[in-house]
Amino acid sequence: MSTKEKIQEDLLVDTQEQNLNEIVLYNDDVNTFDYVIDTLIYACDHTPEQAEQCSILVHYKGKCTVKTGSYDELEPRCSKLLQAGLSAEIV
Q1: How far apart are CA 13 and CA 7, in angstroms?
Q2: What angle do CA 21, 71, 35 make, to 5 degrees?
Q3: In this structure, which long-range contacts are made by residues 65-68, counting pairs with CB atoms below 8 Å and at least 24 apart in sequence?
Q4: Coil/strand/helix, residue 65
Q5: For residue 87, which of 68, 53, 69, 62 has the smallest C-alpha distance?
Q6: How far is Cα 30 from Cα 64, in angstroms, rounded to an integer?
Q7: What is the rounded CA–CA span in Å between residue 66 and residue 49?
Q8: Residue from 73, 72, 91, 89 nearest 81 by CA
Q9: 8-state DSSP, 29
């Protein structure tokens, strides 16, 4: 087995072992686009463009994955979204 093959194999194993979760934001009829955008910028460190795109997807599709990562990283961010009155969960 060559060194290159061994490195690729190790990389694939590391990638498969990481369990990534997602924060899914759901549509509601209460919050405005501007409020959702501002909240995503604050809670998820989105750029204004990212936040706007997510808010449009949530509006038209009913839900959108707004952040991925480990559960420990996502839990405080999801809590901020929930405290702000948005509907979200970690899946």
Answers
A1: 10
A2: 80
A3: 65/22, 65/23, 65/24, 65/25, 66/23, 66/24, 66/25, 66/40, 67/22, 67/23, 68/20, 68/21, 68/22, 68/23
A4: strand
A5: 62
A6: 17
A7: 12
A8: 89
A9: S
Q: Is 86 exposed, middle or buried (0-12, 13-18, 19+ CB in 10 A)?
A: buried
Give the predicted TM-score (pTM) of the model.
0.80
Q: One-letter amino acid identity for 11?
A: L
Structure tokens at 87: 């509907």
User: pLDDT tens digit string along 16-60?
Assistant: 556 899 999 999 999 999 999 999 999 999 999 999 999 999 999
Residue whose token pair is 């990212």: 50
